[in-house]
Amino acid sequence: MNNKPVFVTRPSLPPLEEYTDLLQQVWETGILTHNGPLVQRFEGEFSRLLGIDDFVTTTNGTVALQMAIKALELEGEIITTPFSWIATISAIKWERCVPVFCDIDPGTLNIDVNKIESLINERTVAIMPVHTFGTACDVNAIAALAKKHNLKVIYDAAHAVGTQVEGKSVFEYGDISATSLHSTKLINTAEGGGCVTQNAQLLEKLKRIRFFGHDDNKIIVEDGFNGKMTEVHAALGLANLRYYNDILSDRKDKYQKYKAGLQGNSSITFQDTANGQTNYSYFPVIFETEDILHRVVKLLADQEIYPRRYFYPSLNLHEQVMKSVPMPVSEDISKKILCLPLFWKLNNEVIDIVVDCIQKIR
Ligand code: T4K
């Protein structure tokens, strides 16, 4: 087998000349940043492909989350999931809000909507769920809860480029969705991210916040910071977007190949992708025990194949960043979950080897 070692992911990369053609334009204009022509073009093309009205690019997904909190002027407690990447809570903490964990649903691995209400109090200002591994949250139930208690909803949609609910982009739910365009994501700009909102005033505010608080005339009208994407990053995004449909369908094929190969193995369960509302951006497998996971990791390492323990440990156990509170479902799942290699152009032979290794261990 070629292309060893095999990692959990590899960035989608267009043919180099397609990227350099776009860079040629950057060299010609000399515009490297400050919402130049390629950033604007990327925002337009990305929005068209996803069927959304507008997209505010940012330097990365963490900054997009922080901008969302800033734009909504939140001060207080934000209910979120312990089963995520550290950025979900670090963004909340950087914005001087307090993360409050709500355990997850063991099937979808998303925030357990039935457990949110008991955590709401007079200090609660928002809910920040994650569309974990690109699988949509129960967006309608979350909207109903938010309405009932007058709370804002920010979706950490870092994994969810391409996820659709009820025939439209999942980015259209909540007050703001914040996504990531990091090199490990379905569409990448190397580092990058962005915000989506249906609210025109919020959209303008997000644009001002990412540009030092400038209005269109470069007058400082509010607190802001520097969250701008560069032209060099937007060029990579534009080149990658040409392959968007191919990337989506290729991942779906590979996801289904894994699933077909592993179906019937009684020591594993899969994420419940809730009626197909996923973008196939990760292939997580939950083993019956942590011991089986360790044995699979060892067997795959012998073949130079390196899956990843996303997300381990459960965020509530990071005692150096916050006080520990028990989150039994998230803690249990995080010990037993492994994300298998899944990326555009992954060799199908690798999937066969991975499936074979897992089937050997019961
Ligand atoms: N919210 C959620 C739910 C998130 O998952 C994340 C980020 C965020 C918010 C914040 O978004 P950003 O601020 O990052 O835009 C990765 C990413 O750094 C991070 O973006 C991502 N989530 C997180 C889940 O995973 P690692 O620690 O897995 O990276 P690393 O270097 O171990 O890479 C994994 C594999 O990918 C490597 O074994 C090889 C391959 N790889 C990686 C990079 C960076 C490449 O082939 N090329 C590359 O350039 O963090």
Description of the structure:
The protein is α/β, with parallel strands linked by helices. Helices cover 36% and strands 14% of the residues. The strands form 4 sheets. The chain has a 7-stranded mixed β-sheet with strand order 2-10-9-6-5-3-4, sandwiched between helices. Helix 2 packs parallel to helix 7 and helix 3 packs across helix 4. The protein is globular and about 65 Å long. The model has no long low-confidence stretch (mean pLDDT 96). Ligand T4K binds next to helix 3 and helix 4.
Average predicted confidence as pLDDT: 96
Question: What is the N-to-C succession of helices and strands?
Answer: EHHEHEHEEHEEEEEHHHEEHEHEH
Shape: globular
Range of strand content? 5-15%
Number of strands: 14
| Physical arrangement of strands within the biggest beta sheet | 2-10-9-6-5-3-4
Largest sheet: 7 strands, mixed
Q: Over the alpha carbons, how many angstroms does the gyration radius reach?
A: 20 Å
Bound heterogens, unique: ligand T4K
Distance between the termini: 25 Å
Give the helix/strand class.
alpha/beta
Number of helices: 11
Share of helical residues: 25-40%
Low-confidence sequence ranges: none
